[in-house]
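Researcher: Please translate sequence to C-alpha cells.
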Amino acid sequence: MTAHTVKAANCLIVMLGVLYVVATPIGNLQDITRRGIAVLSSVQIIAAEDTRRTKVLLGEIGVQTAKLLALHEHNESAAVARVIAALQEGADVALVSDAGTPLLSDPGFELVRRCWELQLSVVPIPGASAVSAVLSVCPIPAGHFYFQGFVSPRDNQRRRQLAELLRREEAVVFFEAPHRIERCLQDLADLAPDRRIMLGREMTKLHESYLLGPASQLLADLRGQDAMRGEFVCVIEGNREVAAALDVQHTMAVLVGELSPSVAAKIGAQLLGMSRRDLYQLATSLKPTSGTRE
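Model: Translation complete:
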C-alpha cells in the first residue's frame, strides 16, 4: 500500500498516509478477503474497536507487524487525534470493527469525517457485512430497506421506536443483543402480531440459524432451546397497508394529470377496486385548482 503525496507551501513534498476501512469476518474467520489480509499485513497501525478480538483475527491470518490502537466509543476523540497525527506523518492505518464492515453501528465515523476535512485519503476494503448477508437469504421483499442499527435498550423507548419502524413502507433491518431479543420480540408481537419477521442468529458461526414468522412464533421457537444466545440480525416486513396507500396515491396522481377528477375516479375505481366516491375526493385534492376540467 502506498501513501499519497501533497505539495506543501514551501514546495516540499509531504508524504501522507491512507486510512483503509477494512471489513472483517462477522463470525467465520475464513471470510476475510485476500485484499483485507494484504492491507492488514502492510499498514503500520490498525485502529480496532476491541484489540483483543482483533488479535485473534491477526493471529489467524499471520499478521504480527502492525501496531494495535484501541478506537471505541469511550476513547474516540483521543484515538482519532492519534490516528490523524499518524496519517499526517505518513503512516498507513487500517480501521476495523469487532466484526463486519466498520461504521455500520460501529465507532469510526468521527475519524472518517476528520480525514475528509483534512483531505486525507480514505479507501474502503469491502467484505463481510451482517446486513447484506441476512438480506441475501431473506424471503421478505427488501429491494428497498431501512437500516436502524441497534434499537434502544430501554423498554419504553424501544417500544416507541419499534412502533415507528413498523409504520415504514420498506423492510426494516436492525441488530439486537441476545439478552434483549425476547423483550424485543414480545414488543413486536404486541404491536404487529401478523407481521413477518426474519431472524438471523450467530451468522457464519457454528450454531448459525434462521427463523421466519410472526413474532409470537419466533418467541416460541427460541424459548427452551438455549437459543437466546448469539447476536441477532432482524428483518421486519414493510407495512403493506402504507405501500398500498402509496400505490393508490400514485395511480390517482397519474390519472388526474391527464383527466378530470370525475373521469379519473371512474377509471381509478375500475383499476383499484375502490369506491368511486372516495377516489373522487382524492382526485379533487390532487388536481391543481387552475385549469380544472369537469
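Researcher: Any highlights?
Model: Residues 240-256 form the longest helix (17 residues).
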